[in-house]
Request: fold
Amino acid sequence: MRRAFISLLVSACFLSCQQNESELAGVYIKIPAVNTKDTLFLYGNKKYKQVLYDSSGHYLMTNENKWFVGKHGRIELSDFYLNLDFDTKDYSFSKEAMKIAVISSSLPLEGNRIIIDEDRDVYYKKLND
Reply:
């Protein structure tokens, strides 16, 4: 009986620490935004839309696919453009180029942030509802 209680308690703690997918739905902006302005929309139906502009506000691309929270509490984004805020002048954002540039990404969550590159402090921050 005691063993069952401990297992139940550990499971409850583990589940309560993970973020609920419905709580993650919302609009996120990438920080820093030196070379690109990147907005990520996470929808409650587990689809996402990523819209990217260069620093002067010129539209570069829209990327859409599916997302979910994986076993380890990380956000999983299918065919995602991992934007590290590099200068865009040497990159092509054509549909053909983007087919090659997108990858499935597993990114850590920290509160209202989705971490892209912890060492360079690049992340998406959720806008308040």
Residues 2-17 form the longest helix (16 residues).
